[in-house]
């Protein structure tokens, strides 16, 4: 198992961490505008990736719906009891929102995509595209839902959700897929080119974000969040995919995806909700570092148990 761990770490996680480190070094040596990098991902690179992988996907419509529904079920099975526990413990609202989001919403984009592609190739990317769509929707719906509960700003939250390009990209990708219509070759080539550029941009952006968010941790809060996010959520995912008959595929990718660290966008939501922004930043930073170990272990276990795409050798 130790040899397998070392092999997978070197094959999957080490190249990812190298690009993240280069992004952090870039931030330390040169002024980098974080908002510009985030906007490039959210409004150009991720939409192109989603469209390409949904339109070209070999997954059936029931499989697509099953993947989206499974991710929401996995998140709900942790979010509901955790919310009840936090309310019972009378945790302040600004801390409650951060802990809940940091524990349930995972980094499906700039961490999850390269892990999926390195571990499982194109089939992993197809599944991860749907995971991104679902994880981002749940992030903003849950985040703005909490914001509405705290501040009463429900309509503003709905407007922000409707601005997300992934809603319209998903609809366009499914339409092209269902009709069999082919985009003009120059447009199709440009979309694939942008889609292929997402991974390096996402990892460099993650490195810039981590370099910006470095701070000494409050372990009393960080460790419980790390337990829920990095261990409890993938354990729940394993149980769900087994019960729903999604093992070995796409269940393996859903488990690995759920093991990803806290989503970076939880920081932006904490800012909007006037929550504990420092705690959100600490959760993102330390969960990302710890996930290099936990994701490798979970990936090794998943592969050893036969969790690979059809036709892929273990």
TrEMBL record:
Domain of life: Bacteria
Coiled-coil positions: none
Compartment list: Cell membrane
Pfam families: Mem_trans
GO biological process, any: transmembrane transport
Matching InterPro entries: Mem_transp_PIN-like, Na+/solute_symporter_sf
Membrane topology listed for this record: Multi-pass membrane protein
Alphabetical UniProt keywords: Cell membrane, Membrane, Transmembrane, Transmembrane helix, Transport
Membrane-spanning parts: 6-25, 37-55, 61-83, 95-117, 129-152, 164-183, 189-209, 221-242, 254-271, 283-305
Protein's UniProt keywords contain Transmembrane: yes
Chief location bin: membrane
Cellular-component GO terms for this entry: plasma membrane
Family according to the record: Belongs to the auxin efflux carrier (TC 2.A.69) family.
Protein name: AEC family transporter
Source organism of the structure: Armatimonas rosea
Source organism phylogeny: Bacteria, Bacillati, Armatimonadota, Armatimonadia, Armatimonadales
């Amino acid at each position: 198992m130790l040899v397998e761990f070392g092999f997978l770490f070197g094959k999957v996680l080490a190249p990812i961490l190298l690009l993240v480190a280069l992004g952090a070094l870039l931030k330390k040596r040169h002024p980098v505008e974080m908002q510009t990098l985030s906007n490039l991902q959210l409004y150009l690179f991720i939409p192109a990736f989603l469209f390409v992988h949904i339109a070209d996907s070999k997954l059936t419509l029931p499989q697509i719906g099953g993947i989206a529904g499974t991710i929401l079920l996995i998140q709900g099975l942790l979010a509901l009891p955790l919310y009840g526990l936090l309310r019972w413990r009378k945790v302040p609202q600004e801390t409650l929102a951060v802990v809940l989001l940091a524990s349930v919403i995972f980094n499906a984009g700039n961490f999850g995509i390269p892990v999926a592609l390195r571990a499982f190739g194109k089939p992993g990317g197809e599944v991860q595209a749907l995971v991104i769509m679902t994880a981002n929707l749940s992030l903003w719906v849950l985040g703005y839902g909490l914001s509405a509960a705290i501040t009463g700003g429900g309509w503003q939250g709905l407007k922000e959700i409707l601005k997300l390009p992934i809603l319209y990209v998903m609809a366009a990708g499914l339409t092209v897929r269902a009709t069999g219509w082919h985009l003009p070759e120059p447009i199709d080539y440009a979309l694939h080119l942008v889609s292929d550029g997402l991974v390096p941009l996402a990892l460099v952006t993650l490195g810039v974000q981590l370099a910006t968010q470095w701070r000494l941790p409050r372990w009393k809060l960080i460790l419980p969040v790390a337990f829920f996010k990095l261990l409890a959520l993938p354990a729940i995912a394993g149980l769900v995919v087994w019960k729903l008959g999604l093992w070995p595929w796409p269940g393996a990718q859903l488990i690995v995806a759920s093991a990803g660290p806290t989503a970076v966008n939880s920081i932006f939501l904490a800012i909007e909700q006037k929550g504990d922004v420092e705690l959100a930043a600490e959760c993102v930073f330390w969960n990302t570092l710890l996930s290099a170990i936990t994701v490798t272990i979970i990936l090794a276990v998943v592969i050893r148990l036969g969790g690979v795409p059809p036709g892929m050798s273990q």
